[in-house]
Amino acid sequence: MTGTNESSPSFSFLRNLLADTLRQGTAPSQGPAPDLARCAFFFDLDGTLAPIAPMPDAAAVPASTIALLQRLQRATQGAVAVVSGRALDTIDRMLQPLRLPAGGLHGAQWRAPDGRLWEASVDPDESARLRGALAAIAARHPGLYLENKGLSFAIHYRQAPGLGDRVREEVRAAAEPFSSRYALQYGKMVVEVRPRGADKARAIERFMTVDPFSRRMPIMAGDDLTDEPAFQAVNRLGGVSIKIGGGDTSALWRLADPAALALWLNGLLALASRGAGSRV
Which residue(s) pair with 194 in the sheet? Predict the structure, then answer.
């Protein structure tokens, strides 16, 4: 694990308070109340807000978690964002009726709090050739699924886990001719080819330059390899990084699964709303 950036001493007490709640897995029934208006929350989607599903289209965020996000959005005065490998339109569908600020496709798409959109540019012909090369891999191996995200492409092998090494090697070879503009992104039972220069760390850093996220302590929760750059960025900013589930990580804290994250958020909101003691 890596250390936090102690250049943000004004957040030290707040960070330590949240760390205490993470050790317990929920917020205590009494004690100092965290000032959530000084926090900026960032969440991955699959495996963090939504339980992992056998196929991407089957994933769903529980209604109770969406309700928690609505409460958190009010408590933070809007400083809640999703940073996901999903495209923005899919994020919105999974979180409806919420439409949060978001970084989609690992940061290749970015929607500001005021709704302004930014999207990485790709060459349509090059993208079509890449898609064709990856489709050929998926067609050769039963159990593989090619997800077309528009700007990026992901081959899922959750239904054929024994093919993992072979899929990674074949995707690496297929993507090599496009390596000046595309990068490989490995995840849980998935290999993705995404526009180069986009990642979740850059998406979070961009959010932290605009209101209502700026001048707040960042908190990031995620479950996958794709979240590691985001954890590292949050650590540098003196925030709280939370790994959901098992595996090596640079996150400083860990919760067992999406249900544990929801329990922690619910306790945090309850403690903040009670306002017991002084706010920090």
Answer: 183
CB 75 within 8 A of CB 85: no
- Tell me which of 44, 92, 223, 227 is the catalytic residue: 44
Residue 44: active-site member:
yes
Going by the DSSP 8-state scheme, the letter that residue 33 receives in this structure is: B
Give the strands of the sheet with 190-195, arranged side by side: 145-148, 153-156, 190-195, 182-187
Written as one letter, the residue type at 54 is P
- SS3 annotation, 39-69: EEEEECCECCCECCCCCHHHCCCCHHHHHHH
Q: Which helix (H) or strand (E) holds 257?
A: none
152: Cβ contacts below 8 Å, ≥ 6 apart: 85, 105, 106, 108, 182, 185, 192, 193, 194, 195
**Residue 106 — φ and ψ, nearest 5°?**
60, 30
DSSP alpha helix (H) spans, the chain? 12-24, 63-75, 88-95, 124-140, 164-175, 200-207, 228-236, 258-274
User: 208-257: per-residue pLDDT in tens?
Assistant: 999 999 999 999 999 999 999 999 999 999 999 999 999 999 999 999 99
* Amino acid identity at 141: H
Predicted TM-score (pTM) of the model is 0.88
